[in-house]
Amino acid sequence: NAGVTQTPKFQVLKTGQSMTLQCAQDMNHNSMYWYRQDPGMGLRLIYYSASEGTTDKGEVPNGYNVSRLNKREFSLRLESAAPSQTSVYFCASTLTGGVYGYTFGSGTRLTVV
Amino acid sequence: KQEVTQIPAALSVPEGENLVLNCSFTDSAIYNLQWFRQDPGKGLTSLLLIQSSQREQTSGRLNASLDKSSGRSTLYIAASQPGDSATYLCAVTGDSGYALNFGKGTSLLVTP
Question: Considering just the CA atoms, what is the radius of gyration of chain B in Å?
């Protein structure tokens, strides 16, 4: 019962480098989300996928792209990393409409130098 | 835009005390409300989920209430223990793909 799995757990990037954060869930959930968590700012929604084949912007999408690869996997890509993207990134999933609650991954701690 | 506020931002209590954490939200048109616990450097653990039609949920020493009309929820922790020390987050389900809107959390310290 893995739930939501995020890789990698830690990453250090240089400014301008690119990388993809991976997220996979094994609960047959329809909706998936990417959040970032910063001190004093709380968790903010970056992008979400309400169902397979759809993606939409959240509150803070600039500098990111996403791909809903299939029902299980939802990746977040930083094309040209900036120090302002230093944060902890969380992936979450829910069945539909959050009726049964949301499950979060353990997070990716990203530092951009 | 839904705004979620948690008061207090930080709380320190001696072991054994009962305590209440508060959460308020500006738009009462929510689908549900979820309380999470986050330990330092860790992910989010779901504690309680309250549907918009419910008034409260209980799990062990935790009780969460919801008053949708007034935009408020409380998390009651009975007989607090040092192991309860963590940050508690309140989140409501909004209408953007049912994404969660989070408060900034209450950092709880229970001292022996």
Answer: 13
Decide which of A96 and A17 is more confident.
A17
Q: Mean pLDDT of all residues in chain B?
A: 94
Reported as a single tens digit per residue, the pLDDT across B37-55 is: 999 989 999 999 998 889 9
Instruction: Say which residue the tokens 């600039």 belong to.
Output: A62
Instruction: Give B79→chain A minimum CA distance, Å.
Output: 26
For an interface test with B, which of A104, A109, A110, A111 has the most B Cβ atoms less than 10 Å from its Cβ?
Answer: A104
> What are the Cα distances from residue B50, in Å, to A14, B33, B64, B91?
43, 5, 8, 11
DSSP structure string for chain B: ---EEEE-SEEEEETT--EEEEEEES----SEEEEEEE-TTS-EEEEEEEETT-SEEEETTEEEEEETTTTEEEEEE-S--GGG-EEEEEEEE-SSTT-EEE---EEEEEE-
Of B34, B42, B99, the CB nearest to A101: B34
| Residue A40 pLDDT exceeds 90 | no
